[in-house]
Amino acid sequence: HDHYNTGIFEIAQNHERTYVLSNDILAEKVPSTLAVAGMSAGDILENLPGGIKVKAYKSTDEGVSFLVTTADGTTIYHAGDFNDWHWQDESTEREARVADELFKKILNRIASENEKINIAMFPVDVRQGSDFARGAKLFLKAIKVDDFFPMHFGGDYKEACDFSEYAESPETTFHCLHKPGETVELK
Fold it and tell me: What is the CATH number of domain 40-174?
């Protein structure tokens, strides 16, 4: 419920489109009149409208994460619910270790296939306490990113957008979109 909204089916109605969803989205939520492609981790879709290619990667929680490659070669990564999901201040040592190991295993796979990503949207969830930016730091250390957008921070954006907490990548530009309809133009 926090990563999927049926309102997406009302977007871009005047364009040729294919909706790409994780295979765990229930079919009855999807209008049967729309072009929809379901993906599981490891799946690749090519030749989508506009020359788009999509690869799905595992997540550490629900669904999958997506790497979209546009016709001009621009890469856009949407992490979905992929993050180093543990609460250092609350988790047991074993829970934190297991979460960290799973995250690093998936991250290593993504990084082995993608040395650089142009645009990345990644969870920076302040509910995680002192480790709220741990996943983002590890992601940015493993993969060169041109433009980084934190997400999954709910209404509490100030701490998630305090990039001094995790902006250790001088080649990365950090952006904070926190109001509906807010935009940024990328070069």
Answer: 3.60.15.10
Residue 53: its H or E element: strand 52-57
Q: Is 7 exposed, middle or buried (0-12, 13-18, 19+ CB in 10 A)?
A: exposed
Q: Give residue 2's pLDDT.
A: 61
Helix 93-113 × helix 134-142 angle, to 10°: 30
Q: Is 93 exposed, middle or buried (0-12, 13-18, 19+ CB in 10 A)?
A: exposed
Delimit the domains of the chain by residue range: 40-174
Checking if the pLDDT of 182 tops 80, the result is: yes
Over the stretch 42-53, which tens digit does the pLDDT of each residue have?
999 998 989 999
Single pTM value for the model: 0.92
